[in-house]
Amino acid sequence: MFPEQNIPVTIIGGYLGSGKTTLVNHLLRNANGKKLAVLVNEFGELPIDADLIEAEEGDIISLSGGCVCCSYGNDLTSAIIDVAQMRPAPDHIVLEASGVALPGAIASSLSLLNNCTLDGIVVLADAETVQKKSQDKYMGDTISRQLSDADIVLLNKTDLVSADRLLQTREWLKQCSNNASVVDTVHSTAPISVVLQDFERSALKPASGKPHDTSQFESYKLDMEEAVDPKKFASELITNTPELVRAKGFLLDLDGTVKTLQIVGQRFMVSAAPQGIECGVIVICIRGD
Amino acid sequence: MTNTIFSAKKIITMNPARPHVTHVAVREGRVLGAGTLEELSGWGDYVLDETFKDKVIMPGLVEGHSHAMEGTLWKYTYVGFFDRMDPHGKVWGGVKGIDAVLARLKESEAKLSDPDAPLPGWSLDPIYFNNERVNRHDLDKVSSTRAIGVMHASGHILNVNSKALELAGLLKTGIDHPGVPLGDDGLPTGELKGPDVMTPVGVHVGFDRDMLSCDEDGLVDFAKLCVRTGVTTATDLAARLPEEAVAMMSEVTARDDYPARIVPLRFHHGVTPKDLIEHVLQLKEQSSDRLRLGMIKVVVDGSIQGFSARVRWPGYYNGADNGLWYISPEQLSEIINMSLEKGIHIHTHTNGDEATELVLDCMEEGLRQHPSRDHRFTLQHCQLADRAQFRRMAKLGMCVNLFANHHFYWGDEHYNLTVGPERALRMNACATALENNVPMAIHSDAPITPLGPLFTAWCAVNRLTASGRTQGESEKIDVAAALYAITLGAAYTLKLDGEIGSIETGKRADFAILVDDPESMPPEKLKDVRVWGTVQDGRIFSAAEL
What we know:
The structure holds two protein chains of two kinds.
Chain A: E1 7-13, H1 20-29, E2 36-40, E3 53-57, E4 60-63, E5 68-71, H2 76-84, E6 92-96, H3 103-110, E7 116-126, H4 130-133, H5 140-148, E8 152-156, H6 163-176, E9 181-184, H7 192-195, E10 217-222, H8 230-240, E11 244-252, E12 258-264, E13 267-272, E14 280-286
Parallel strand pairs in A: 1-6, 1-7, 2-5, 2-6, 7-8, 8-9
Antiparallel strand pairs in A: 3-4, 4-5, 10-14, 11-12, 11-14, 12-13
Chain B: E1 3-12, E2 20-27, E3 30-35, H1 37-41, E4 46-49, E5 56-59, E6 61-63, H2 69-73, E7 77-78, E8 84-85, E9 91-92, H3 98-111, E10 119-124, H4 136-140, E11 148-152, E12 157-160, H5 162-167, E13 191-193, H6 195-202, H7 216-228, E14 231-239, H8 243-254, E15 261-267, H9 273-285, E16 295-299, H10 329-342, E17 345-350, H11 353-369, E18 378-381, H12 387-396, E19 399-402, H13 404-418, H14 420-426, H15 430-435, E20 440-442, H16 453-462, H17 479-493, E21 511-514, E22 531-536, E23 539-542
Parallel strand pairs in B: 1-4, 1-5, 6-14, 7-10, 10-11, 14-15, 15-16, 16-17, 17-18, 18-19, 19-20
Antiparallel strand pairs in B: 1-2, 2-3, 5-21, 8-9, 11-12, 12-13, 21-22, 22-23
């Protein structure tokens, strides 16, 4: 009964050492039966934890739970086309960008492919080094551009800096990332519902699973009984909820149709909803101090 | 054992002890000696071969930066602005306007029997048509039922027709991508900029996914172009070199009639530095006389005309954002350090001066860790380097291979648009390189520009742009220096100068056989020197009989 849906793609960006690979492993470990296809620039020294690997063949590694990991080398577009055509189709593509790639440019390219949709750009920042790196003679502008492309910045390794420094870094990130949501993490252990919006595709349940750091997030459900203008509603929700990280759900449009709404950071997307779905929007926020 | 002695009108040896001789003796594919017939008869019984008695012989030319895919591209329809020779010796006239492009494509279209076969073309350059763009409606006039795609000369832009867009699912509104311009109707115009955009459509118009790859026929055809241009050793600069490709190249180059020595470099991308080094060490073991493996190509930035090169302050003349890094400093350093440690030879692609600066910094640090007397790491293209950078190259023992042809094809573009008048003058600074004793080669980057070292030498000597302006008078070099750059100069950057690049005792019997004498031609005519063919490892290859 569901129309053929595009596969959501989450782009994981960030400079070398910011924790991208750790995040990918964390997502694979918490995939909960969903088939993730992970695309990495290269198979480095153990990009994937050894205990997750079931078989390795050429550019494809089969992982437990039906997940796969592929290296895309110098041809990202082809790799995405190939992965999207795999059967069974993956539920979600996680694309680990190289340390020097601009995730916004990758997102633009995704818009040209017909069987996948951008789910969000998550950029990791090493709390200890990101500010200094953003001044680097060679890499500074690349790192700034990565951050400004982000919907969500995972401020990682927060255990390694003082509280004051953390506060200051968080404010700095807000400035240089076009007001992306900034989420604190240690060892890249952000909740999967934050990193991968479309993780729960058909069912509308309060935030799936238990976030690892329950103190940092809160989620609530808006019932959405009345018809609204979806775009206006989304803009207002974003404006009025400064701590919003993600939102997803279904709402009744003024024309009487039901629409799917997805929000990540400052970005929202409205599309046709599956038939017979119950209205309601789940909102995930960073808990106020 | 019988020796062969070739006579010639003139032999340019590149050996300063006797720069010009009349005879060269060959045994077992190597040069016994160069001198007079009387001197050479001292080596014993000989057969005098007078095939070249009215020809000029030079050391076989060495192309230090080309791609064997030039051979493959000739399967597609050539729509370049300039006359260009195909592997079979046919010179395709340059097409001088959009109507001519369409007419050429129509000719090819008429020859296709399969109604679903795509029609790929290559080497389009609208710069020369007052930048008038080819759009999908133009190409639809050639065919609206088969997919058509025309690659630009730069390799960075693809023009396609409506059918190709439709097959790729892109004939729709709502596309928001800087590389996909839209028409008034909100649909793509058919111009696709950048590899990310070109790939998904390219597969529908007949362009293989891996543009760097060269198939068997392509490798054979590439060598034919080598013969026609006097080249006996050519690089295939950047390939992924998987097992099956290496097996194919080994088989093809070992054929008795394969006329060129191919030097493929392993492209760094897609593997970790550690795996890269391991692969290259493995490749080195598989080298043969005509297939020299075991070097690395690292791509650091993009291209200047594509605005993807990394340039230093104040950036691009037209205000475009700075370009892209294709590798991080950390990874570059790691590859350099490991290669210095293991004695592996690296060539780096840098177009912008910031990318060049990064390589120099990494080399300086790497050499502190792993002092290496004779590494010959080579900066490829290195188009925008300034004098201070050339001084550093010299101190660090680096070589440079400058893109002299670029100056002719895109010099006006650089002057007007990319880097502006002042920096355009210093691009591809051959004179500065030599003045600072940086070992130098010059190149075509075929298929980006045509293979042909004598044309490349002409570019470096005259520094003319396509519009006919002399750009950078102070960076001109003389004919002797240019001829050195396309023989021993290029051989040196490949560590092959002990084997090839000059005609003297012990060297490979690799010769370029010329109808005209490049030393007595007026310098502005250097590109018109006619090539009869080559001798490679003592085997004669006549261009007319390929």
